[in-house]
TrEMBL record, chain A:
Organism: Amycolatopsis albispora
Subcellular locations according to the entry: Cell membrane
Keywords linked to the UniProt accession: Amino-acid transport, Cell membrane, Membrane, Transmembrane, Transmembrane helix, Transport
The protein's name in its UniProt record: ABC transporter permease
Annotated TM spans: 21-44, 50-71, 76-95, 101-123, 135-155, 180-197, 229-249, 261-287, 294-315
Membrane topology: Multi-pass membrane protein
UniProtKB/TrEMBL annotation, chain B:
Keywords: Cell membrane, Membrane, Transmembrane, Transmembrane helix
Recorded topology in the membrane: Multi-pass membrane protein
One Pfam family cited in the UniProt record for this chain: BPD_transp_2
Compartments reported by the entry: Cell membrane
UniProt xrefs under PANTHER family: HIGH-AFFINITY BRANCHED-CHAIN AMINO ACID TRANSPORT PROTEIN BRAE, HIGH-AFFINITY BRANCHED-CHAIN AMINO ACID TRANSPORT SYSTEM PERMEASE
GO annotations of cellular component type: plasma membrane
Transmembrane segments: 25-42, 48-66, 99-122, 129-146, 179-199, 229-251, 320-340
Gene Ontology terms, MF aspect: branched-chain amino acid transmembrane transporter activity
Matches recorded under InterPro entries: ABC_transp_permease, LivM-like
Protein name: ABC transporter permease
């Protein structure tokens, strides 16, 4: 699978065209929402909340898209790993009383190591080969992690409070500070990953392995080690996402499930392996969710997400910004 | 040069060897006969476990037809289980229609939905992970629709109304009646028989050929789309029976019990443990997983001294489930039956 960050001039014009169509659809949807609800303030608040929440989705999906794009693994355990990282962040904050964001120092390296161990122990080598087996192993892992958390922490929800949480006025809408920080964190992490993949030797090697594994092996890249490294980086992203998202949601052992679904939608939408696509896809899904609640009152906001998911799978399985493999 | 023609020595007449499908059907008949007296021998608590195992078995057989024989890895069999459950219970509660008719209606609805989903998936050539994710998305979408539709009582779901006395037509018996087991045994036995006949039928041969090499099969003139859709419909119909009977046995259904992701997983895991794409894999896997979940449940209710902290906590059964799943996939990628078959041949 080629990473979609490689862009030829021809496909660039295609991308710009698709971007234009997408922007038009988004504007039209917002205008319709305006007609539906009749209150500009409500719609604007939804749009701002949607975009900021979408940043969070992008953040969670980034690690997943990296693993999906490079290793071709549908990592069903991503949400469960996210939950593990959240409980880790919760534990660190409880035990030390540090600022919640400082839990990054613990969660990111811990998840990096956990990811490396999972890949080495479970997913590489014999028996971890076929697509179905990888799906089943990551599924088993997610069941194991979720129910392990349930066993030791119980089902009651916990929360991490941000000290000095403020409400920030943003162009007429009001958002919680932590939501804005999470969004900014997502953009920053996206930039870091983009830089890592595009400007460093490691990133070049990762892209080489993604594009052509045997060829990369021939020029002396240790493919197996690089796979482990990529899986670990993807998992570390989940660690970062968990710490940034922890103040925003109630932490339960099964919280990963809901994010898993959204994250897969975002990954498919943005094109596998496309980190920037994941961010854009995340923003779109955040908007879709908010607009669903305006259009379909009383329905779950995830319903709109599924409609978008199925449409994208059928019409552009390579993602909005990817090329057909 | 002798002029007498030597007559060949008369060969003793030997019965021709049984064809594989007849042998498998014979084994099935023996298994069913052996299982009939079980509910009379087992204590009532274990009788309930046996019924659970048979419901698992129905789901596993259904999933195996599509994903094992057909090679179309479904991650959303909860959709068909749930449609079977909801169709039958809706007809029963709202219109007083017998669960047997409801079960058949559920089979039809599930098969129709499966054909629609399958048609679009195959038309847009979704394969592997994308197909799995699509089936998953459809099951989740049905769960959300059920959760937010007044039509099916939202998150509350349905309760099967109790009747006076016992009735086979209403599919209700006394709580610990062996009849529940016998009905489930007949349904599960029929399902396994259908899967055996299907595998060895002309359609089944087409389907396994398509699974092994779709391009080659298509180039030899196999009607690919028709047989894929047939497989999907059959698989969904059998899974719907499991859903309908589940609801009738537990007298209760809601969106999570019917369409939840864990239902899809319960359809997959026994087959993986037993052996994907084999006739007996679902049977072996269901018996193992069903007994295992009972052992862990007992363990949680009355844990031994050193596991005292586990008392009353949920999650252990799934943890064991998960560990077993990972181990089997890692160590016996073909499952128990598949691995044994391979050893036997060598």
């Amino acid at each position: 699978m080629t990473t979609a960050t490689e862009v030829s001039p021809a496909s660039r014009t295609g991308m710009i065209k698709r971007g234009g169509v997408l922007a038009a659809v988004v504007v039209a949807a917002i205008a319709l929402a305006l007609l539906q609800s009749g209150s500009a303030l409500v719609v604007w608040q939804s749009v701002v909340t949607g975009i900021l929440t979408g940043g969070l989705y992008g953040l969670i999906a980034m690690g997943l898209t990296l693993i999906f794009g490079v290793l071709d693994i549908v990592n069903f355990a991503h949400g469960a790993l996210l939950a593990v990282a959240m409980f880790l962040a919760f534990g660190v904050v409880q035990a030390t009383g540090l600022h919640p964001y400082l839990a990054l120092v613990v969660a990111v390296p811990a998840l990096f190591l956990l990811g490396a161990a999972v890949h080495r122990g479970l997913l590489s080598g014999r028996g971890g080969g076929s697509l179905e087996n990888q799906l089943l192993i990551t599924l088993g892992l997610s069941l194991l992690l979720e129910n392990g958390l349930l066993l030791f922490f119980g089902a009651e929800p916990r929360s991490v409070k941000l000290p000095g949480e403020i409400q920030i006025p943003l162009f007429g809408a009001v958002v919680a500070g932590s939501r804005l920080y999470a969004f900014l964190g997502a953009v920053l992490l996206g930039a870091v990953l983009y830089w890592l993949l595009r400007r460093t030797r490691l990133g070049t090697a990762i892209r080489a392995v993604a594009a052509n594994g045997p060829g990369a092996e021939l020029v002396g890249i240790n493919v197996r080690r690089l796979h482990t490294l990529t899986f670990a980086i993807g998992t570390a992203c989940a660690g970062a996402a968990a710490v940034l998202a922890a103040p925003l949601i109630s932490i339960t052992p099964t919280l990963g499930a809901q994010f898993n679904i959204t994250a897969f939608v975002v990954v498919v939408l943005g094109g596998m392996g496309n980190v920037v696509g994941a961010l854009v896809g995340g923003l779109l899904i955040g908007l879709v969710e908010q607009l669903t609640t305006i259009f379909l009152n009383g329905q779950s906001s995830l319903l709109g997400v599924f409609v978008v998911f199925v449409l994208v799978l059928f019409l552009r399985p390579q993602g909005l910004f990817g090329r057909r493999a | 040069m002798s002029t007498t023609i030597e007559r060949p020595a008369p060969t003793p007449v030997k019965a021709p060897p049984l064809r594989p499908q007849h042998r498998q059907l014979a084994i099935l008949a023996v298994l069913v006969l052996l299982a009939i007296p079980l509910p009379l021998l087992l204590p009532p608590a274990l009788g309930a476990v046996a019924v659970r195992i048979l419901i698992f078995l129905l789901m596993a057989v259904g999933w195996n037809i599509m994903s094992g024989f057909g090679g179309m890895f479904s991650f959303g069999h909860a959709a068909y289980f749930g449609l079977g459950a909801y169709t039958s219970v809706y007809l029963l509660v709202e219109h007083g229609i017998s669960p047997w008719i409801g079960m058949v209606a559920g089979m039809v609805v599930a098969a129709a939905v499966a054909v629609v989903i399958g048609y679009f998936s195959f038309r847009y050539q979704l394969q592997g992970a994308y197909f799995a994710l699509t089936t998953f998305a459809f099951a989740e979408a049905l769960r959300l629709i059920a959760t937010s539709s007044d039509f099916v009582n939202r998150a509350v779901g349905f309760q099967v109304p109790l009747i006076q006395g016992e009735s086979l037509w209403q599919l209700q018996f006394a709580a610990d009646s062996p009849a529940y087991f016998w009905v489930a045994l007949v349904l599960a036995g029929l399902a396994v028989a259908v899967s055996i006949v299907f595998l060895h039928s002309r359609a089944g041969k087409y389907v396994t050929a398509i699974r092994d090499d779709e391009l080659a099969a298509a180039s030899l003139g196999t009607p690919v789309l028709r047989h894929k859709l047939l497989t999907v419909a059959l698989s969904a119909a059998i899974t719907a029976v499991a859903g309908a009977y589940y609801t009738q046995y537990y007298l209760f259904v809601n969106p999570d019990l019917a369409f939840g992701a864990s239902v899809s997983i319960q359809a997959i895991v026994p087959v993986v443990i037993g052996g994907i794409g084999t006739v007996w894999g679902p049977v072996v896997g269901s018996v193992i997983m069903g007994s295992l979940s009972d052992v862990t449940a007992t363990l949680l209710r009355t844990p031994p001294e050193f596991l005292g902290f586990l008392q009353g906590r949920s999650g252990l059964d799934v943890v064991l489930y998960a560990i077993l799943l990972i181990l089997i996939v890692r160590l016996l990628p073909k499952g128990i039956v598949g691995t044994l078959k391979e050893r036997w041949r060598r």
